[in-house]
Amino acid sequence: MKLDQTDMKILSYLQENGKRSYSEISRYIDVSEGTVRSRINKMLENEVFEFIIHTNPNKVGLYVQAIIGFSTKLGEQDNIAKSLQQFPEVRFIGAFSGKHDLIIQAYFEDNDSLVRFVNEELAHIDGIVSADVNVELKQYKDSFSYVIRQ
């Protein structure tokens, strides 16, 4: 699906406030409510975006965020990524070029939970050569907005 300026405007307003009504968005961008509704439905069908609830980890008892970079045995990257998907602590898994083959973002209640995860869970996954554990000390920005305001 190729997005046009109207789609981008709709996305921009939804990213500011995902609870905005179709009629409110239509007034902002000067198109009919039906146009907004059909555009949103089409973008949802084409997986351009999805409606989600972004929870503040600290407010639900997850006080430790870790970014963990892995070096993997050749040929094991996909298997390791699939193994990591089973853990509810893991929010993000990606393959990267550079120093680490895989990088994950994971959330934990406390440092002890992180240490247990590394020493008990990660240690049992075949193919992990090393894990570079980085704990967030201070957060400056956390955004899921990828659309530039039109």
UniProtKB/TrEMBL annotation:
**Classification via PROSITE patterns:** HTH_ASNC_2
Q: Record's InterPro entries?
A: ArsR-like_HTH, AsnC-type_HTH_dom, Dimeric_a/b-barrel, Tscrpt_reg_AsnC-like, Tscrpt_reg_AsnC/Lrp_C, WH-like_DNA-bd_sf, WH_DNA-bd_sf
> Per its UniProt record, what CDD domains does this chain match?
HTH_ARSR
- The reply to whether Repeat figures as a keyword in the UniProt entry is no
Ranges where the HTH asnC-type domain occurs:
3-63
Which SMART domains does the record cross-reference, listed alphabetically?
HTH_ASNC (SM00344)
GO cellular component, alphabetical, reads:
cytosol
GO MF annotation list? sequence-specific DNA binding
Pfam families the UniProt entry points to: AsnC_trans_reg, HTH_AsnC-type
Provide the alphabetized UniProt keywords: DNA-binding, Transcription, Transcription regulation
According to its UniProt entry, the protein's GO biological process terms are: response to amino acid
Output this protein's name: Transcriptional regulator, AsnC family
Q: Which organism is it from?
A: Salibacterium qingdaonense
